[in-house]
Amino acid sequence: MTVTASSSAGSRDGGSDAPPPGSTPPPRSTPPSPPAAAHAAAPRVNAIVLTLVLGSIMTTFDMTVVNIAINRLTQDFSAPLATVQWVATGYSLALGAMIPATAWATGRFGGRRLYLAAIVLFTLGSVLAGAAWNIESLIAFRVLQGLGGGMIMPVGMTILIRAADPERLGRMMSLLGLAILVGPLSGPVLGGWLVDEVSWRWMFFINIPVGAVVIALAARIFPRDTPRAHRPLDVPGLLMLSPGLAALLYGVTSGGERHDFGSPGVVVPIVAGALLIVAFVARALTARAPLIDLGLFRARSFAAASGTLALFASGYFGSMLLLPLYYQIVRGETATMAGLLGVTGALASGSAMQVAGRLSDKFGPGKVVLTGITAAASGFALLTFALAADTPYWLLIVATTVMGAGGGTTMMPTMAAAARGLSHDQAPAASTTVSLINTMVGAVGTAVASVLLTNAISTRGASVGGLGVQVPDATRRELAPALADAFQHTYGWALAVIVLALIPAFLLPRRKS
């Protein structure tokens, strides 16, 4: 900057840039090396990622907090549980159905504009949901929230991939992963307090100041959208994939809630959704401008990361309902105490996430992810082989901590590996695909774990009338050994799926980009 200003001043004074005769020419200024340039941009990138974290926390917080208020909503609106459950289901379906269109919309309108629109839509949905006058209006406004929430994570990930230097992408993705940690950790605690001490309406109103801050920051610091070639919207593909995902999600979540995948109300939407998704894939492989470019899977890093993510997330996130239920059903703890006993795992996950991001940038994601999967599998193995009705709490906390550290070391470096080497134009499709994988396998894993646990309890003759149902202490103590054995059996499924994730993880890059 100083050299440029001096040269300009010399020109304005009528002088020449040439040195006087006989003098030694001054040294020419050189542009900063790439590392220096990257460090110069680091504060702005850090501000961008922290804004994205704040925006993503709203959606993860909202997904966990509503489940706590289901019983209160049933009482306040005098509505049956099956109807109130749509407050959560409607949001999830809208979120899943909206994700496929974000890749095209990002290219058409720009990441900055679309992200701001998504936050505005989500915040508006929060205002209306908090002011809902009956259960039908609350469900409708939750769907509106889901339409905005479905765009926040994939568009935010696209913005980050484009803004971050490739050599720092791992640590930036790890910072973004804090939203996955903070939302579920704070949701049950803060949500429970709001429902019990204030009002369930403040579960939604609390998003208003957060949304306002995110909008102000994003408008100020996000990079301006640059003109890009617009692809036409693949309308047939959209009409296949969005309804297909919604139907599949509905069938899977219904099967998990009913603990049965054999009823027509579960089988029909699952089959219909699967057929629509297969039809979309067949079209996407031949269409000139598909809704999502499946050619990304030709890249070894993206394909390996997607396979790792699908297997690991299904076992890891699918099993998250198990230990809290174990504490309540087998050990007789309250929901609050069950949540507190899981805090060490969440803290270990967040801490490991930050270290893993830096190690991934330094050594490559392959070695870090293999270490993370191995650590997570070790924690799951402890629960698979040592879980009993009287397992010491310190051992359960150790297992939870190891599992959390393994999950934090695996998830974000894997997502960073998926974005490795992609061009700016490929970033929206990659982000959308990764978000779809997370959404789908999380729902499928949770439903499968719920069904397996229910069946395991039933075959052992230890039914307590439903998961989460309060039972007398005497009955609980009598059934505790059989119940603990059912939980142990279900953890075995999660362990097997996580170990399988080692296969695609071996194909991840083991050198830094």
List the keywords:
globular; 513 residues; disordered N terminus; single chain; 76% helix; mainly alpha
Structure, briefly:
The chain is an all-alpha fold. It is built from 23 helices and no strands. It starts with a helix and ends in an 8-residue tail after the last helix.
Describe this structure in words.
With 513 residues, the protein is mainly alpha-helical. The protein is 76% helix and 0% strand. The chain contains 23 helices and no strands. It has helices at 2-12, 34-68, 70-77, 81-84, 86-98, 102-109, 111-130, 135-163, 169-176, 178-198, 202-205, 207-221, 235-258, 264-284, 300-318, 322-329, 335-341, 343-363, 365-386, 393-418, 427-459, 473-500, 502-505. Helix 19 (365-386) packs antiparallel against helix 22 (473-500). The chain is globular, with a radius of gyration of 25 Å.
Distance, first to last CA: 31 Å
Which radius of gyration do the C-alpha atoms yield?
25 Å
Characterize the overall form.
globular
Structural class: mainly alpha
Major sheet summary line: none
How many helices? 23
As a percent range, the share of strand residues is: under 5%
Low-confidence stretches: 1-19, 21-40
Number of strands: 0
| Percent of residues in helices | over 70%
What string gives the helices and strands in order?
HHHHHHHHHHHHHHHHHHHHHHH
Q: Please tell me the overall pLDDT.
A: 80
Topology:
Layout lengths: L1 H11 L21 H35 L1 H8 L3 H4 L1 H13 L3 H8 L1 H20 L4 H29 L5 H8 L1 H21 L3 H4 L1 H15 L13 H24 L5 H21 L15 H19 L3 H8 L5 H7 L1 H21 L1 H22 L6 H26 L8 H33 L13 H28 L1 H4 L8
Helix pairs in contact: 2-8, 2-9, 2-10, 2-12, 5-8, 5-13, 6-7, 6-21, 7-8, 7-12, 8-21, 9-18, 9-20, 10-18, 13-14, 13-21, 15-20, 15-21, 15-22, 16-17, 16-22, 18-19, 18-20, 19-20, 19-22, 21-22
